[in-house]
């Protein structure tokens, strides 16, 4: 018991030290409060718009694993994605943001800011918005100027593409910075239990955050649809080509048979009849082939429609009225708490040292 008392600091001692150092508290805490307020006010506010949707999945094993699927879901596993015939399961859709080609496809999207805003209205591409229309704290401009002073000339780096054509897999430093900004603003998450895809977009303007959320949803739907129907579309194109060739061959055979029959209408020789029958049989075979391919084309079109995934919208993007961050009050309270804790530890450091030594 005596040992425990020696190794602890009495609360009365802490209060005593706080009383002795109250002048220090009265100096530190107001300074931290003012500096925290000045800092957080300079940080630009941002808005977040969110979309939730569920893409239809193509499961090769159907619903025969109902109970097993429920158990797997409770363990955080998506057994449906394991049974799907697709090489890319819904759980991998968030990884599309790592692909430069997919991200670069968002650059040309036209965005407009709130026209009722006090700031100058913006009407430009998303790339230009990220590069030239981002608000920053006052010290951000100073840091950028210092970096530009000591940075190497980017002109050669911008020319490394060789032409004016944009190549998402061969970016300049400036383009790479803009792409990283975009990745920081856009988030795609997949819930392994429910299969819900959540698209979240941050922007300094609420209208732009909504516009980009809708645009990314459409681009993601287009990607999923094109991927899921790629094999069927190739089959359809193949059958359409075969049908076109078969139609030409049938029309040529029909024309040839018609001309021969017209030219030998009154001829009764057996050799002419045999040739006519051969031409008629050839025409019939080509017609049968053409007719069969027409059926295949219709089946391929039906299969394409069946393999086109449907998307169920759970939550649509809205124009946020309140900023998502930064949380100014929480930040100031946290900084005050840290300042109070640090000042308190400084005040009782002697008692702490004695306690540790004992």
How does this structure look, described?
This protein has 14 helices and six strands. It is α+β, with helices and mostly antiparallel strands and 358 residues long. A four-stranded antiparallel sheet has the order 4-5-1-6. Strands 2-3 form a two-stranded antiparallel sheet.
Per DSSP, what share of the residues sits in E-state strands of 2 or more residues? 5-15%
Order of helices and strands: HHHEHHHEEHHHHEEHHEHH
* Count of beta strands: 6
User: Quick one: biggest sheet?
Assistant: 4 strands, antiparallel
Strand order of the largest sheet: 4-5-1-6
Give the averaged pLDDT, no decimals: 82
Low-pLDDT parts are 60-68, 159-163
Helical element count?
14
User: What would you call the structural class?
Assistant: alpha+beta
Our Rg estimate from Cα atoms comes to 36 Å
Please sum up the structure shown:
This protein is an alpha+beta fold and 358 residues long.
Main attributes?
about 350 residues, alpha+beta, 4-stranded antiparallel beta sheet, 6 strands, about 60% helix, elongated
Which SSEs are present, and which pair or pack?
Blueprint: H1 2-6, H2 11-20, H3 22-42, E1 47-55, H4 66-74, H5 79-83, H6 100-104, E2 110-112, E3 123-125, H7 126-132, H8 138-150, H9 155-158, H10 173-185, E4 186-190, E5 197-203, H11 206-263, H12 270-307, E6 311-315, H13 328-347, H14 349-357
Antiparallel strand pairs: 1-5, 1-6, 2-3, 4-5
């Amino acid at each position: 018991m005596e040992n425990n008392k020696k190794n602890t600091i009495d609360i009365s001692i802490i209060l005593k030290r706080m009383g002795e150092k109250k002048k220090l508290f009265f100096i530190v805490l107001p300074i931290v409060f003012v500096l925290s307020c000045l800092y957080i006010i300079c940080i630009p506010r941002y808005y977040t718009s969110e979309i939730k949707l569920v893409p239809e999945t193509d499961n090769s094993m159907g619903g025969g694993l109902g109970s097993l699927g429920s158990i797997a879901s409770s363990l955080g596993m998506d057994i449906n994605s394991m049974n799907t015939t697709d090489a890319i399961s819904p759980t991998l859709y968030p990884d599309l943001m790592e692909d430069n080609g997919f991200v670069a496809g968002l650059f040309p999207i036209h965005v407009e800011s709130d026209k009722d805003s006090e700031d100058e209205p913006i009407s430009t591409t998303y790339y230009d918005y990220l590069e030239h229309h981002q608000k920053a704290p006052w010290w951000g401009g100073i840091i950028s100027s210092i970096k530009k002073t000591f940075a190497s000339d980017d002109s050669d780096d911008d020319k490394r593409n060789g032409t004016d054509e944009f190549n998402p897999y061969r970016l300049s430093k400036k383009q790479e910075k803009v792409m990283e900004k975009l990745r920081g603003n856009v988030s795609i998450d997949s819930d392994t239990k429910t299969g819900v895809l959540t698209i979240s977009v941050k922007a300094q303007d609420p209208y732009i955050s909504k516009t980009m959320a809708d645009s990314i949803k459409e681009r993601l739907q287009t990607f999923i649809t094109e991927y899921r129907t790629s094999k069927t579309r190739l089959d359809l194109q193949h059958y359409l080509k075969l049908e076109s060739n078969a139609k030409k061959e049938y029309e040529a055979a029909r024309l040839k048979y018609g001309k021969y029959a017209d030219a030998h209408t009154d001829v009764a020789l057996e050799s002419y009849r045999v040739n006519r029958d051969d031409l008629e049989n050839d025409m019939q075979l080509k017609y049968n082939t053409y007719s069969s391919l027409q059926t295949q084309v219709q089946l391929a079109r039906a299969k394409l429609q069946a393999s086109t995934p449907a998307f169920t919208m759970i939550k649509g993007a809205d124009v946020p009225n309140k900023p998502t961050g930064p949380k100014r009050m929480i930040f100031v309270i946290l900084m005050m708490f840290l300042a109070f804790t640090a000042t308190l530890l400084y005040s009782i450091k002697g008692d702490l040292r004695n306690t540790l030594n004992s």
